[in-house]
Design a protein that fits this description.
Layout lengths: L9 E4 L12 E8 L4 E6 L5 E4 L4 E3 L4 H10 L22 E4 L12 E8 L4 E6 L5 E4 L4 E3 L9 H6 L6 H23 L11 H11 L2 H13 L5 H4 L8 H15 L9 H15 L2 H25 L4 H6 L4 H9 L2 H57 L2 H20 L22 H5 L3 E2 L5 E2 L2 H7 L1
Antiparallel strand pairs: 1-2, 1-5, 2-3, 3-4, 6-7, 6-10, 7-8, 8-9, 11-12
């Protein structure tokens, strides 16, 4: 559609996929940004300003008749000076063009190509580069037609066609041009508002890689390798209350930064493996359930400590008019809460992991002890079994019985005792001998003081 909607035109938003909440809402045209090929609109409800493609805005039903009448009376020269031609199929197939103005693929700038067709759903031309035969999809603003015929007519010729307009139409056109130029200058000086546009995955991926520097990739690798190893949420830089969709988006974003094919850091592969393992752990229901349980305990501990510390906080009471639930909601949404939650979660996860490892070591030591006792018992049983077999051996038994019989027969005959190897041999008794002095000693004195004779002396006396 031609960009002829003037500032202040009432339009209706439709066909948005990234912001479906805005579809059907009324807005007003602020200006047409030719560098972005989009209309800057201001939503009536809320006052939000966005940049939308021409296909996503259409005149409001109530103002369609007046807008059509105004457009019918507006001359071509009333179009904004900075307006660019719209992305319509104005180039026929097989048209020779030159690529220019690409930021994501600067190596293609200046190369010649050939238009294959126009793709309406992507609003881009399918172009084949002549030199490399590479196929790509480009905007109309990034291709220039190669002119082989006579030079184009000067702008003065086009302007001359409007000289036949009446004075009122020319005055309106001049006023419109001045207002649009003033709005464009103000918009260029002001910071750019958020851009609302829908791009295909290929274009988003190229723009993402073009905007990310090597320093950013290296910093992300260092962050992943230095973060807390026992919490996969920290590997993906996620809040602990993130949903499954948030986990997938975060993995996609981080993986694009640290992929070994794109990142030149020497430890990029280790970082990529770490976030892959983190996503796998968060995708395992048992692991995620246990982790979320410990994180919930840490969250309750932080909230309990916050309630205790802010019980008598007059500033918070005045700010939230004594509403404790509103105070808690504001605290839970703050970065301070998430940082405290992170520190408390680390303490609890480390404590649980320490207990688990300690229990694992105790179980392992107990298993080793039981295994050692079982081996010792098996060896003892084997030794006893071997001894019993040797004892029950018939040859050994006959030898023992025969030796005992021979010994007993020799005892009965009174013959010389046979020496038995290993038999007990008692000590020899020696007769006690007394010296002469000991023999002369007496036993003692009687009551009368007389010497008491020894038994041998008594026998001699008799």
């Amino acid at each position: 559609m031609a960009h002829t909607m003037e500032p202040g035109t009432s339009v209706e938003i439709g066909g948005l996929k990234a912001r479906p909440d805005l579809n059907g809402k009324r807005a007003s045209i602020v200006q047409y940004a030719s560098d972005r090929e989009r209309y800057q609109v201001k939503v009536v409800e809320g006052g939000e300003e966005l940049y939308l493609k021409p296909v996503n805005v259409k005149p409001a039903p109530a103002a369609s008749a007046s807008a059509a009448a105004a457009n019918a009376t507006t001359p071509p020269s009333a179009t904004a000076a900075g307006d660019a031609p719209s992305e319509t199929a104005d180039l026929a197939p097989e048209t020779e063009v030159t690529v220019s103005g690409l930021k994501s693929r600067p190596e293609l700038n200046g190369k010649r190509g050939r238009v294959v067709r126009y793709v309406p759903d992507r609003e881009r031309y399918h172009v084949v580069v002549t030199e490399t035969k590479e196929e790509t999809y480009l905007k109309r603003a990034n291709i220039e037609v190669l002119t082989t015929g006579p030079p184009a007519e000067p702008e003065t010729a086009k302007v001359s066609e409007t000289e036949t307009l009446d004075d009122d139409a020319a005055a309106k056109a001049a006023i419109a041009r001045e207002s649009i130029e003033a709005a464009a200058a103000a918009a260029a000086a002001a910071p750019a508002p958020p851009i609302e546009e829908i791009k295909d995955s290929e274009t988003l991926l190229r723009e993402f890689f073009a905007d990310v520097s090597d320093a950013t990739r290296d910093a992300e690798v260092e962050r992943i390798l230095s973060c807390f190893k026992l919490n996969p949420y920290e590997h993906l830089a996620l809040r602990f209350d993130a949903k499954e969709d948030d986990i997938r988006r975060a993995f996609r974003k981080v993986s694009l930064l640290v992929h070994p094919d794109k990142c030149t850091h020497e430890k990029a592969k280790a970082a990529f493996d770490a976030i892959g393992q983190a996503q796998q752990l968060l995708g395992t229901p048992e692991v995620k359930r246990e982790l979320d349980f410990n994180l919930e305990r840490a969250r309750d501990a932080v909230v309990k400590n916050w309630r205790k510390n802010t019980r008598n906080d007059v500033v918070l009471r005045v700010r939230f008019s004594g509403n404790r639930e509103a105070q808690l909601a504001a605290f839970l949404a703050s970065d301070e809460f998430h940082e405290l939650w992170k520190l408390e979660a680390r303490k609890m996860i480390v404590d649980v992991e320490w207990r688990r490892r300690k229990l694992t070591l105790r179980i392992k030591a107990e298993e080793e002890r039981v295994e050692k006792e079982e081996k010792e018992e098996a060896q003892e049983r084997k030794r006893k079994s071997k001894a019993q077999k040797e004892w029950d051996n018939e040859k050994a038994r006959e030898g023992r019985v025969g030796g005992w019989r021979d010994f007993m027969g020799a005892q009965k005959k009174g013959g010389k005792k046979q020496k038995v190897v290993g038999a007990f041999k008692g000590p020899k008794l020696k007769k006690e001998e007394r010296s002469k002095e000991e023999k002369e000693e007496f036993h003692g004195l009687d009551r009368n003081g007389k010497r008491v004779l020894r038994p041998d002396e008594v026998s001699k006396a008799w």
